[in-house]
Every structure is written in C-alpha cells, then in structure tokens.
Amino acid sequence: MSVLAREGFGKATATTPVNGYAADASQQTISTDKLVSTDPPYYDNVPYADLSDFFYVWLRRSLKVVFPDLLATIAVPKAEELAAFASRHGGKTGAEEFFLNGMTQAMHRLAEQSHPAFPVTIYYAFKQAEDDGVAGTASTGWDTFLDAVIRAGFAVTGTWPIRTEMKGRVRDRGESNALASSIILVCRKRGTDAPTAARREFVTALKAELPAALAHLQRGNIAPVDLAQAAIGPGMAVYTRYARVLDAQGKPLSVREALALINQTLDEALAEQEGDFDADSRWALAWFEHTGFAEGEYGVAETLSTAKNTSVAGMMREGILASKGGRVRLLDPDELQADWDPNTDPRLTAWKMVHHLVRALEKGGEGAAALLVAKLGGKAETARELCYRLYTLCERKKRAAEALSYNALVQSWPEITRLAREGARRTERVEPLPFSDEDE
Asked: Which residues of the chain have pLDDT under 70?
C-alpha cells in the first residue's frame, strides 16, 4: 500500500500550487498534522499491480530515461502490494496475516500523525459473500480490515454508504446482495483511558443504542440493501469505545464476533418494529417469512391468525389472501386489484399499502406510485418502514426477486414523494370556474 498526499489548501484556482508525494503508507511521515481521507486496497478484490502491468510496459519504453529508478523493473513490483492474494503468500491464512499486519501498520501511522482536530475518513467497498455467516459483514476481508483499523488505535465513530455503483446494477444483474454503495468509515484515535468491558455490558449498550440509530438511518431513507452495512457504524462505535471487550472466559471478543452481535441486535430491532403494524400485516409477515408467496396449509394459517388476533376469512375478503382446496397463499403484487383506492378501503393495512405500491412502481413507474402515496398521505411512511423488514426476511431466505422489489421501492421513495407533493400542489392551484349552474 502506498499513499499519495496532496498539499495546497484554501481557495483553489488555476494557479494554486499543489504538491504530490508517493510513499510507503506504513513508513510515511507526510500525513503529519494533515486532514486525512484515504481509499485503501480492498483486501483481495482488485489486483492493482497485475492490472498496472498492462500500462507499465508501455510507460517503461517511453519514460525509462526520464524516471530510471521508478521504471527500473521489467514489471510492476508485486511482493509489497498490500493485498491478500493467496498465491503470493503461501495460502489464504498467510495472505490474511500479511494484509492484517500491513494494514495495521499503515493505519497506525495515520492514527499517530493525522490532525487531532479532524476525524480520519476511510472509504471501503466490498461485496457480501452469500455463504458468509454474518449478514452484512461480507467476506473475511471486511472484518480483517476493521480489525486492522481498531488495532491501529482508531475508534470507529460512524459509517455511511455513498452511491458508487451504477443505478441499475442491482436490478439489471439480479444481484439481491450487491451493494449500491461503498462505505465511509469515520474514525478518531481511541483515548488512552478507554475502559475494558464484559460481553454482557457490550450487548446491553448495543440494545440500548442501536434501535435509535436504526430509526435515524431509516428516516434518512437509506436503501435496505445498505442498512446492515450502515448499522456497523453505531455498533462499532460501541465496540471501539472500549479498549477490549472480554467474553465469559476472559478472552477478547473478536471483531467478527462483535459484527455478529451487531447484526443480531439489528435484526431484533427490526423485529420489534413489527409491533407498530396492524394485526393483518403482522400475520402476513410471519406467514411470508416461512412460506413467501407459495401455498401453505389452511390449518397452519388459521392457527397463526388466532395468535395474531385476525382471521383468514377476513384477510381473504380484504384481498390479500387466496384459498383453495385447504391451501392458503398470499397474493403477489401482480394479482392485486389494479384500480385499488386506499380512500375507500375499509381495512387498510401496511401489507396492502406496500404491495400495491410495489405493483404501481413496477407497472407504471414512480409517477404511478406517487398517485397512491398522495392518496395515502402520512400513512405511506408505515409502508416504507415495512419494506425494511420485508427486505431483511427476503435476504435471509434468498428470495432475490422480492428483495429487489422492496429495495427498489425505498430507493425510489424520495422521487415518489416529491412527485406526490407536486401533484398535490397542482391540485391546490386549480381555481373554480367563474360561473355557477345559475349562470348557465
């Protein structure tokens, strides 16, 4: 890993002097008292040195006389590249150890030298591995990278996704777990007086603080696909406020174990939000978690409806269920009534709102969805909240198509609500005709 530093602050003009330096990030001194924002290597995601060979051979032919030291080798040097490639380091374990040690040294230099008045911001991108045991934590590279940052003496005070991928990537490629963004880590040097905590104390703090942070993220309309990543911020802020977190045996709790607890607490917080939904929607959520839009036994559905204080017959009358031959299934959005009007619906539910909005968005775009939101008014926010829970269930059950629909609705929400407001304003501006029936 190398670092490229730029000097030249204040109002930028065409003549503002700017100096650039290249150095080994684990040994450099150029970040002293600087505001640091860095984009480090992404574990084993991108073979930068290998890719650079394509350009290097041509640059070397033309510029070796000008930069003899820089272009002395036949190919780009690769041994020092801070990337976790098993082929270079004797296997996966050696590659991970090389990356962890090198990244820790590089981050330690930044923690020591960066200006104390400003946080260090670190950009990181990764793709979640489907076989990973910790939802939202991605591959080994993510927890290894976080481990290096924390070992270097940083406390993670926040994370936030930034849009870096093509707008249509998730839907076009059918990748339900493809992030729409990269992650910014906001870090400050951890205090020397940071206390040690027991695992129970850490979990208690998570349960006290993460639900409020989750509500804040949802109010910011963060995409469901990015929610688990963004929630790492407040979770890691709790974890890194301690010098160490110890388990029941007195052993330090690893970053990976901490991430698992953060995601568990996040899931519990999302589940607790179900209490805000109506009885029909709570029943539909429980049924959907186990069955999706497939058929299930009527008897099981009836038992569940009793527990949720509703009835299968009532939900059938209201148009969210179909039943035939002792089998029950939820109606998918394509089967819902096309001319549905929430203002005349006597049993308006969050489940109904979500799936009519999904149908409208997929069939008629954001404009069609906006017409429904305008009719729903303040109730529409309940539908948006339900989308987060539905996306989480779909991701866990690997139901990619449904996950994409719920994620798309939340991502389109700012534009949908903007169109709904504009439509309402246009309606208010329409003046009555300047004559009455008597004038005729």
From this structure: 1-16, 20, 22, 126-140, 163-181, 424, 427-440
**Tokens of residue 187, six digits:** 């870090």
Could you tell me which residues come within 8 angstroms of residue 79 by beta carbon, excluding any fewer than 6 positions away?
88
Tokens linked to 377: 């008014």
Write the DSSP symbol of residue 343. Answer: G
Q: Which of 158, 159, 136, 161 is nearest to 410 (CA)?
A: 161
- Is residue 232 located within the same domain as residue 302? no
Mapping DSSP onto H, E and C, the string for 318-333 reads CCCEEEECCEEEECCH
Q: Does residue 245 sit in the same domain as residue 321?
A: no
Q: Are 438 and 366 in contact (CB under 8 A)?
A: no
268 with 288, same domain: the answer is: no
Please, is 227 exposed, middle or buried when counting C-beta atoms within 10 Å of its C-beta (0-12, 13-18, 19+)? buried
- Are 202 and 89 members of one domain? yes
157 is written with which tokens?
């005070």
Residue with tokens 């911001």: 121
Does one domain contain both 323 and 189?
A: no
Range of the domain at 310: 275-427
Residue with tokens 């208690």: 204
pTM for the model stands at 0.74
Check whether residue 107 and residue 246 sit in a common domain.
yes
Tell me if 66 is assigned to some domain. Answer: no
pLDDT digits (tens, 9 = 90+) for 290-333: 999 999 999 999 999 998 999 999 999 888 999 988 999 999 99
CA–CA distances in Å: residue 133 to residues 175, 324, 418 = 18, 38, 39
41 and 126 belong to one structural domain: yes
Q: Tokens 């959520």: give the residue.
A: 285
Classify residue 324 by burial, with Cβ atoms within 10 Å: 0-12, 13-18, 19+. Answer: exposed
235 and 343 part of one domain: no
Q: 90: which strand partners?
A: none
Q: Would you mind telling me the total number of residues written for the chain in this entry? A: 440
Q: Of 256, 273, 290, at which residue does a domain stop?
A: 273
Domain closes at, from 239, 273, 307 = 273
